[in-house]
Records
---
Amino acid sequence: MRDEKNMQVAGLAEDAVAGNPDEAVGTMHVGAPAPLPNLNVIVAVCDDWGIGIGGGMLVDNRADMRHFVRHTKGHTVLMGRKTLESFPGGQPLKGRRNVVITRDLDFEREGVDVAHSIDEALAMVADDPEVWLIGGGMIYRELLPLCTHAEITKNHCVRPADTFFPNLGEDPTWHVASSTVRDDEGNPLVTPEGIPFEFVTYTRE
């Protein structure tokens, strides 16, 4: 699971740094935000909605990794280039269509479909039945208004962070559809280091 162990660094700080010519693609306008039925988002957050620091995850949560695999395997994952580079060897996630947004016109990677703008990326995945945004920070912020479904792993702690996900609890357009706080055997969800967490599904109309 080496590729899966790094997916929640999709909230990488590098992707959100202003002035980075590669990730500045996230500032392009995508037109009026009309939700797309095939566009979903998946991310792990802390109680303050922090998702990463220095390009790394805030909480080591293997159950969250399995959760990520279960939802994204066999589907399309959409990300910024810095997120791809954070994976082992900079290689795409196996068993998925990997679409990367970058302004680098020379960028190419085996097993990756490259888009040079948000509009181009959306056109590329328009016919894909299920698309998951996996970061980084700028990609999340720009495309969240187009999503209709969010899978949020809430780690109940606060850790130093330099990248944050929008607080869906403060957005009246998003609603909690379900929340899971126990595993299949009825045990509370807790990380090996003792941090309680839950899997929350949000939907928006």
Note: Strands lie at 39-46, 50-52, 76-80, 97-101, 112-115, 131-133, 149-155, 163-164, 174-180, 197-204.
---
Amino acid sequence: MRIGVKQFSNKLEFFIEDLIRLFEEKEFDYLELFVHPANMEYLDGWVKLKQTYNIPFSIHAPHFSQGCNLADKSFFDYNKMVYEQVNTYAKALDAEYTVVHGGMDGDVDEIIRQVSIIKPYKMRIENKPYVAPRNPDKMLCRGAKPEEIKYIMENTGCGFNYDIGHSFCAAVSLKVDQYEMIKQFETLNPESYHLSDGEFNNRIDIHYHLGDGDYDWAKILPMIDHNKNWTLETLTKKDTKGLDLVEKDIDFIKKIKKKSAVLIFNQTRTFLYLINQVINTNYKNQ
């Protein structure tokens, strides 16, 4: 497990001291940088941070809230301009990958068409809730269903970034069991994850800090790959008061992971004991 902390391209000055401290204390392993459109003046500061402290980066591309929509042909010119900036950030920071949202309404084949032209740097498509948070009764997100993500992956060659909270919201809308939804998305072999808390039976995505919602992390974590990147998507763009709550998120996930490891160890030990008992019984009966 590699823990990542999400940041916003225009917020370096608010968090730089906390970022340096937490990275040097090995509390997180990489930064996932959300690139706002028309924020090129901040790139040099992020590059300097990377070069000075050797911090790895991934990139999160802007989405519908910033005016991008890969699913709609009428957005193409703006999308292309914005992704040129995103790719500049990604290459300058030697990003491991770029997380991309498919968009709203529109058409999945249009996503594939635009991606083939725009070519997001080392793209990983992210699953979404089924309904738009700000307009849930009128707008639908692309990439809410596992079959849509699979179709995009197969037709673009991109990877997959699995957002657990998004899939829970989609499950509520689609009337699918939330844990069954995890199993379905896991068949797509996610290469990275987004973690945030929420309300288990709410179709709206909330992005609470871990422990502030009612997700059962002790049940969730054993179902996902512990050898991949886990980005904490709990810092909101409105936060400007330091990373104290994110630091608590890191502690929370480490404690839950440790409990899960102990549980798995005890279950394995019990299973091996039962197997040994069966073998001994069979041997005695021969």
Note: DSSP finds nine helices and eight strands in the chain.
---
Amino acid sequence: MNERQEILRKMARDVSSWNGGFEDLDVYETIEDLCNELFSENPAEAARAMHFGEISGWNTADGYRLDAYGNIEEVDDIGEEIDGQEEDIVDAWLELAEEDERDGKLLEKYHDAGGEYGLEGDSKEEDDDEEE
């Protein structure tokens, strides 16, 4: 993942921790990390999730997550998935920022890393307000 995608992932985690959502971007680096975090109390459930999941190799993918059925699946390109949700992530994070005075430096870092969303819409809305 590039820097912009890492920042978007952080924004998605912020939104998820407050309002839920973007669970599909909650990816663990290794199968061990996922199992230790999600199945530490129930190793049999971890075995079931691996058996019925889609794992083609041990720690060979970009990451691992649970699918809709609670089975472990590989994530081949999380950066591509983040890119596909970029505008939604930024919009949701900005809504949080309005409610909670989020750190504007994260948005600044996102724009410095090549992010396109967040500033244009804000300035356009301010211009519309001034005209009324």
Note: Helices lie at 3-19, 31-38, 43-52, 78-84, 86-100, 104-112, 119-131.
---
Amino acid sequence: MADEEYVDLDGDGYKESVVSDENGDGQYDTVVSDTDGDGQYDTVGVDTTGDGKVDTVGVDTTGDGNVDTVGVDVDGDGNIDAVGVDTTGDGNIDYVEADTDGDGYADFAAADTDGDGDADAYAYDTNGDGYYDAVEYDTDGDGNVDYGVYDTDGDGYADFVAADTTGDGQYDTFAYDSNGDGYVDFVAEDTDGDGNIDVAAADTDHDGYADTYAADTTGDGNPDTYGFDYDEDGEIDEYGIDEDGDGEIDEYTDEIDDDVFDDFLDDDF
């Protein structure tokens, strides 16, 4: 049996804590306490590194006799910088928050939303303002992010969504709310997986319907074919062609041989 001693850590005259040497090295490494005075131990602290300082703390916040919250001092600076919570009471940690840069504020979170024991949702505070501005989801449990939702301007509202529709681990479909009204007005796709946008559609008048289209038909990373749906009936009324790749439309026409905008027609945002 590990050496142990009952102690009064808070100086109230009651020995509400037990310290013990669990690894037998002659140094106390574990402390168990009754912090609320109800006669039940609800907090355990452990020195896992042997430096004489508690670096892992477990707490029973619900009073059911089981630890449901765990805090860890990962970098050994004396401050808890990662906290895991069992939100469902099944004995497994399903939500974690961490301070990855040591400024005292959580900037990363991970959650197991489906209860399979693996994290599938992740949140990041990328600018250090104390608010999560990027959330990414692994919807199929393969360990790769399938789509992400981002607040790119820091106003507290999501304005950009990216998705991996092919399962290759790379985003290929994008949606953007450019004016912050809460509605998507620009969508784009990388159809060949080369990392460049191949076709895009925009709602330039913000009425909820795409009216302007652009495509890169040469694969050089720049749009060269444009489509305009002036009456927003889901049909291209006029095409614009940049023949020399200078970014300017050289020719307007009513039809083209290969309509690269078929997948975008009739799309409403």
Note: The chain has no helices and 20 strands.
